[in-house]
Amino acid sequence: MRFKLFLIGASLLGTLESTAQRPDSVTRYIDSAIQVFKEHSLYAATVNWKQVQDSVDLLSQTATTYKQADASIIWAFSQLKDKHGFVATNDSFYRYSDGETRVLSKGILAEYKKPRSIKVEVLANKVGYYKMPSVQIGSNTAKMKEWANNLSDSLCKLLALQPRSLIIDLRMNNGGNSAPMFEALKPLLGKSYTTYGANSQFKILKKESDSATLAYQQHAIPDRLCAPTNPSMRIAVLIGPGTASSGEILAMALSSRSNTRLFGEKTIGVCNATNGFLLTTNAFYCLLVENYVADYKQKINKAQIVVPDVYVKSDNDNYTSPADDPTVQAALQWLSKKK
Asked: Where is the Tail specific protease domain (predicted)?
């Protein structure tokens, strides 16, 4: 998802009564951060903010600098139990862990050591294989256009070979900027292209349509578009513990398409929408989960995870030779069956 950046100066808040030893500037710094957590986190309603405020005041009562106050802010963030977001300062980084560890196969770990790349290939029975990597470019609009073109051109090259069905491999797609991914796969997604945000009360949110957002989105549109595919074409989507964030949202969107099945293992579980916030006083940046996501039918993914239709344990992922990959082989069996 696109990260929005909000600049929040400590002066935005009124001066609250500070402790005897804590300067007002530090108090405002702390309260600015807590205000952001309360107003923007999807999980804010799960937290007793009175208790958090009391604990933060106690933890930071002797803090005389922003740096000394950071630990109390990080503790407050941890109470959200937000495993997608994080807090970062000039010299510290914190991400909440729910204790669940994800196990990545040797194949994925080996592939992560290589530069991110797109892979297209035609397998047995004219099944097209398309590996879509993550797009870790932040909000760089020039890179958005570059990646949109690369992703789209690769798909068009594959579709020009007239495959009977497709495999979309998202097992190594751990997120990043979703806009180029969705725009590139638009010929496959059809109406499933549309996704929505939903707030903590499970209310579907209106899509942003301001001029700045629309102008930004234009950078993700490829210069060359493939022709839409037949909606009856079968598509197998591969997912696993390496599929995260935008990769999960894309898998969710594809799964709402007819004639589509998911193969592999469950995703990491951060299928949600995030926003970024910067407190200018200390280069203090936090990323928060702000909304749930929903598919084009407005079905909200409350679990924030994507589960395969066909489970395949990914012990022997093979990205060099997809035909020898067990998850690919399972997908090929389904794709080769007569409808």
From this structure: 126-312
